[in-house]
Amino acid sequence: MPLPLAAQNADDIDRLIDEGIEYERDNKLELAIDKYRHILEFDPENNLVRIRLAKVLSWTNQYDEALAILDEVLAQDPEQPEALFRKAQIVSWQGRFDESINLYDSYLEQEPNHPEGLMGLARVYFWSGQNERSIEYFNRAIEAGADEVDARVNMAKVFLAMRNNEQAKVELETVLALNPEHEEAKCLLKGIPKLRKYEYIPLGVILYIYPDSSLGYNFSTSFIYHHRQQWDFIAAYELEYISRKFDHTLIFTTVYMGIPDLYLLAGGEVTPQANFSATGRVKLGINYTFQNFIGAGINFRTDFFGDAPLYSIQNETLYEIRPEISKYFGDISNITLSYSRFILSNGYDTGKFGIGITLDYYKNNAIYAGMAYGGSVEIQDESRRVFELNLGIGYRITQRLDLGFSYAYIDTQYGQTHQIGFRPVLIW
Q: Number of structural domains, the chain?
């Protein structure tokens, strides 16, 4: 609806702009957008209002319309500073980092000491992997009067990405001296001791105790490389000894964590000349953690069985689908519910419910308890249900050494079996 004629003067326009700004402050963004559109109906060349409209549109993720408006303004005045600044912000959010850097440079030529401009450019340098330049501009932003707490938290993140944990710790301690209640800084500072680049398990041991009192053994070694806290690359070797037969298994797994709160997993296993194992396995998984600390995920697994002489499954393919949901109560403590559906290529299928609880105690050590109940692929008896119990404890001896102990009670093709495990983990 057009404004009445009486409203179409400078004083009324200023009043309406002030109302739009008030809507912005109250986070009533749709009302602010409506107000600015209303003004432009009779004053379409008002660049102040056009830029404000573009800004609020960008806050509601309407990037294309916001950029179209800013491009119109810049077509008339290529050096309009506020339009340059807002466009630099939006294209950086779209991942167009080189373009954003050029726009910020043009803006800072006119406003060399603008704190938000310097902060924005520092963030883009960080997002584009130019960490040294990012640190330079965060420091310049602090000198120009930017929010020091915000700048130093962001610098700490850059130092963490550079694996300079000591300097990250300095920045976070400075933040907490300025604001002792800053939750993000406390969380990051608490997490620094857990940051690691390599983990190595020189020898993990599991002892199997079968119903007839015979024994089996599993020996394993594994190596984990954490790349920039975004990728985990895991390689492992297992040697199992049961009934005087050996199985050798090679395991490779990759985990991607580069998208906040999202975990993607892919891996495979190979057991040449298997006696009591699948000859091959492929696994995929995805998990997402929501802001209320609830995680949801789904895992897929395919096992390929040959003619392993000591195993109940022969020359079949097994498919498993396992959705799960977790509730986190801190960095370690959580409870997870899952359901596994197993489908064999011979037509047999069954399901199993599981629950796992992890609790942390004393300096990030952990206790685990898990139970599962349902059908068994090994036994393949639709009328029979099996119960599994898993217990574990992890204890940090030093910053470089963890010890893990485990116990499991499971129903297998051999009957009710006990498993006792031990593994040291070297961290650096």
A: 2
